Amino acid sequence: MLTPVSFSDYPPIIAFMKKILIVDDEEDICYFLSRSLSKRGFITDTSYSLSQAEKQLEVSTPDILLLDNHLPDGKGIDFVPKINQKYPALKVIMITAHDSPEDRLKAHNNGIQYFLSKPFSLATINQIIDSVA
């Protein structure tokens, strides 16, 4: 299992850099996104469950949240209202392998900026990140 790095581990000199929290139970996706986005100058952190993500958000709030919809301890889409209430400036991008019109509508109604189906391309992720960053 990969060991997540917390935003608080970074020195204050890079506090101006955009932070992205990646929440997905697939470690390969977290690693791929974290590595790719870090190369672009973003500070990334990863989480594999909603409970872990909630703890990480309490320590340091990112600018962007890449959130899987189906996680071991619940649905990301049901976690979003709680996020919006506590962190209204946080941009949420939903990523999921289980795309349905109902989930897309619920995501839109919950204020999710983008709803992205897996598999996705790095170019698509970069384009979406750039549009909300």
Task: Describe the overall structure.
With 133 residues, the chain is of the alpha/beta class. It has a domain at 33-120: 3-Layer(aba) Sandwich (Rossmann fold). It has five helices and seven strands, in the order E-H-E-H-E-E-E-H-E-H-E-H. A five-stranded parallel sheet has the order 2-1-3-6-7, sandwiched between helices. Strands 4-5 form a two-stranded antiparallel sheet. The longest helix has 13 residues, at 27-39. The protein is globular. The model has no long low-confidence stretch (mean pLDDT 88).
What's a quick, concise take on this entry?
By secondary structure, this protein is an alpha/beta fold.
Task: Give the SSE map.
Elements lengths: L18 E5 L3 H13 L3 E5 L2 H10 L4 E5 L1 E2 L2 E2 H11 L4 E6 L4 H9 L4 E4 L4 H11 L1
Parallel strand pairs: 1-2, 1-3, 3-6, 6-7
Antiparallel strand pairs: 4-5
